[in-house]
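Give me structure tokens for this 227-residue protein.
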Amino acid sequence: MSSASKPLSRYSAILFDLDGTLLDTAPDLGNAASHVIRTHGIPGGISDERSRELASDGMRALLLEASRGTLSASEIETLKPEFLAFYEQHIADRTMIFPGIPELMAALSEGGIPAGVITNKPHNLALVILKKFRETSEIPAVIGSRPDIRSKPCPDALLLAARELNADPAKAVYVGDHPRDMEAARNAGMTAVLAGWGYLPKSASRESFGADFVARTPGELRSFIFS
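Here you go.
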């Protein structure tokens, strides 16, 4: 396609959260939590629906819910390595890419707009899971949780990704499904877009997240980017 016929956008880069934004990872996260507590003979488990509600709050919240609130903070810390080891082995058993994301990623590629992923998921696991899906396997800038970078809502990882993509933060978009994602975007001076298809609390008003734009679907996000 000639440069003249490429779709045009005012944005220089589109950055994404991972869990609940690009990929529906909650079933495998919940499965890891249920496996760990059952291995230790603790009654309980966690449904896919409940996993989606808690996935953004991390493995501590998932383990606590799966144990029906019986685990102490210290017990949860002890079980975290088992959770991570099992999850890595089953990281994409049931995880799916959200409908509309493949078309969105194709449009970004066609338009010459680089993409990045910033997630509080451990960095090595973010790299592993993104490689499982053709549409996300070649994303050039991926930054997960690392000891040398402050996690969201601090802007450090977003700004690092922008530098890696040679993008002006003021012309970049960060897309996520949690209030800390919107806060991180604002802290980085980026346009904050709420992924309305993600793991949002049922009781939460979309407008309460403080986003610059609320995209109900990846298709609406695509229209926003190229408007």
